[in-house]
TrEMBL record:
Domain of life, source organism: Bacteria
Chain ranges of the Extradiol ring-cleavage dioxygenase class III enzyme subunit B domain: 45-251
Cofactor(s) required, per the database record: Zn(2+)
Family according to the record: Belongs to the DODA-type extradiol aromatic ring-opening dioxygenase family.
Protein name, entry field: 4,5-DOPA dioxygenase extradiol
EC number(s) per entry: 1.13.11.29
Catalytic class of the enzyme: oxidoreductase
Keyword Iron: no
Organism: Pedobacter cryotolerans
GO MF annotation, one: zinc ion binding
Length: 274
């Protein structure tokens, strides 16, 4: 069976399901991947309350590349892209399959840029630390889409719109990052909860814009004030939010969960669309 025939068979075999929700998860510390806490418990609950996806496509803050890539291997490896944590975290393996045919379908959907089929990356902790709580049996294919660091926020928001057809094919698209993410200003005294005044103010600005569907404000986040700029010293943890919002249709509302600041300068606020 040639690749094209496999591709056609895959797309025709997918059920015409109700449109899948889209999610943005504030993933926080890698330790959330092995801890059962209020955040990981909510991730599990979300998975129980949405349709079981045919596949999950993750846009993770931790795959920041020149150009856009998508994992296209049969079995993406588990990447431990961090340091200084307990051995138990490095021992985690999340052996979910990939889906090369879905990777090609996704690449073909996008007309504004060339998406490269990648065989070298895998699932970084922005993906597996969340997904392993949602789907602990690792029996649902998981792919990652990288974030092109050469492009601005509008590009990423628009790219998400080109992926919207996947939601009708039972693909759960999940952005993974943190809206407020300034590790240099993190406070260990506040690690279990609490945020600096500027972090709370930035969080409230984000929430208001999300709930009011004011996407232009969120795309032009550099104009949202000094509190927001303190919360986004670099954009990689913020941009996954724009993928989730770019998938929101006019008749869909957004709901928020895990709306908490930790470590002074990091927020776990998460979003469900649909």
């Amino acid at each position: 069976m040639n690749t094209l025939h496999q591709f056609k068979s895959f797309t025709s075999a997918l059920p015409q399901s109700d449109i899948m929700p889209a999610l943005f998860m504030g993933h926080g510390s890698p330790m959330n991947g092995i801890e059962h806490n209020e955040f990981s418990t909510k991730w599990f609950e979300i998975a129980q309350n949405i349709p079981t996806p045919n596949a999950v496509l993750v846009v993770s803050a931790h795959w920041f590349t020149h150009g856009t890539k998508i994992t296209a291997m049969d079995f993406p490896p588990t990447i431990h892209d961090f340091g200084g944590f307990p051995q138990a975290l490095f021992d985690v393996q999340y052996p979910a399959p990939g889906n090369p045919i879905l990777a090609k379908e996704t690449a073909d959907l996008v007309k504004t840029t060339n998406i490269v089929l990648d065989h070298d990356w895998g699932l970084d902790h922005g993906a597996w630390s969340v997904i392993k709580h949602m789907y602990p049996d690792a029996n649902i294919p998981v792919l990652q889409l990288s974030i092109d660091y050469t492009k601005g926020a509008q590009y990423h928001y628009d790219l998400a719109k080109e992926l919207s057809a996947l939601r009708k094919k039972g693909v759960l698209i999940l952005g993974s990052g943190n809206m407020v993410h300034n590790l240099r200003m993190m406070s260990w005294e506040m690690i279990n909860g609490g945020g600096y005044d500027w972090a709370i103010e930035a969080k409230e600005k984000f929430k208001n814009a999300i709930l009011n569907k004011n996407h232009d404000t969120l795309i032009n986040y550099q104009s949202m004030g000094s509190e927001v700029m303190l919360g986004i010293p670099t954009p990689e943890h913020y941009l996954p939010l724009l993928y989730t919002l770019g998938l929101q249709s006019d008749n869909e509302e957004a709901t928020l969960f895990n709306d908490k600041a930790v470590g002074g300068s990091l927020t776990m606020t998460s979003v469900q669309v649909g």
